[in-house]
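ping. complex inputs:
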Amino acid sequence: MLRFRCIQLFTSPFEAPFIQSFKPHTSISCAQMGSYSTTSSSAQNSPKLVFRQLFEKESSTYTYLLADASHPQKPALLIDPVDKTADRDLALVKELGLKIIYAINTHVHADHVTGSGLIKTKFPGVKSIISKASNAKADLFVEPGDKIYFGDIFLEVRATPGHTLGCVSYVTGDGPNQPQPRMAFTGDALLIRGCGRTDFQIFTLPKDTLLYPAHDYKGFTVSTVGEEMLYNPRLSKDKETFKNIMQNLNLSYPKMMDVAVPANMVCGLQETKSEAC
Amino acid sequence: MLRFRCIQLFTSPFEAPFIQSFKPHTSISCAQMGSYSTTSSSAQNSPKLVFRQLFEKESSTYTYLLADASHPQKPALLIDPVDKTADRDLALVKELGLKIIYAINTHVHADHVTGSGLIKTKFPGVKSIISKASNAKADLFVEPGDKIYFGDIFLEVRATPGHTLGCVSYVTGDGPNQPQPRMAFTGDALLIRGCGRTDFQIFTLPKDTLLYPAHDYKGFTVSTVGEEMLYNPRLSKDKETFKNIMQNLNLSYPKMMDVAVPANMVCGLQETKSEAC
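pong. complex structure:
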């Protein structure tokens, strides 16, 4: 049975994290297939959202910076930060006048070391977030249905297992003051024209939802739910064909696996372990 | 003296290209420094604009796909296509149901071979575009003040010499039906937190104008005029300091220079030369 919690920005230093029950968002409407006016551009009716897509070239990883610019504190979060580019990302946060409050991972990465721990050593107030199902260390654990607030904007947590058991996707909220079209940060669960048996959750989102994965190896930066339903070479197939494709990929052993996974279980800082998470 | 022309999409195959004089856009208003709600996201009031930022990893080059999705023909253009990723870009154009009409370069590149010629061999109806001042071959030559229409959306041509004499930037139009905030495709003239003595033209744009350069070597994908005025380590300096910085860069000889420049003078296809351009 799922629990639904609400993680909010604490405007006072004396406020502690709290868990709030609320009615889960059970009926996701499936809108008509929209036009492809993605514009890498999301947030069309939300001038308050700051959004930046950042790239780490060695592992082809995308890190996403989101912030609520209309909130007095300009609270910001980073999704899937990389240790090697953490300084770049924090410099940008400073230049944009933002206050970093969360370092969030979609899952325990096997191809790069997360920047969460490093960010926390530089900004001790930052809370690291990962799914409870990942079994990794973090300050806050999320479960499907949870909402992560930064200012007045929130991310909704969706279970998208397949790549790893604990994989979740973070989706911008559904509401009048939330970015439109919605944006889904899919981690490694769904790549553009690529992998992941995660269509059950992600493909119930409106077709114009912008898809932001954790990697791209061909130079794409964004897609939509509608496009992936049509053109994803794996997810557009029937179940048996999909299983055959996945069983015959013959992928080589990930070169960073033995370094990255143990490090990412403890926020990217093996030496200091639990203290950093 | 500048001439001002208007390049429009021909809705009938019998219509020939025409040159139209119009009053140049001489007074660019310089809006208040906006918030940094760039959202990689542009086009906030323009649901008809299709926009995709595409990356070629070897030369860290950005190619930009723009189209007018609300026009019956869904006319599209590519800015700074790369030969190695031309097939990827054309496949995406097809998947999105677009009709490619222009292959546009900001300048004669020295670090990669343009995809313009290759695109034209696959889609002979496509017209290649470059600035007249570049002295390169192309189907259409643009000059500062020209407008390049694709459907009802247009790009305005701005002279941004410095990197090369013929460098131009393409800026989305200023008008009620044009994308807001405006988007400037700056080529190599202005990189994010990087080079180019081109501030005279680009820095007269509103501060919330989204800046899309032709490369990024640090993993950034977009910036704004306001940000670069504040944080660009070269352009935020006075003229003498800037000159000193540029004279002491001690850059190595570009590895692709001897291949790329001759090829890019003839649309990327040296063998077929003028036929392909």
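Residues 174 and 201 of chain A are 15 Å apart (CA to CA).
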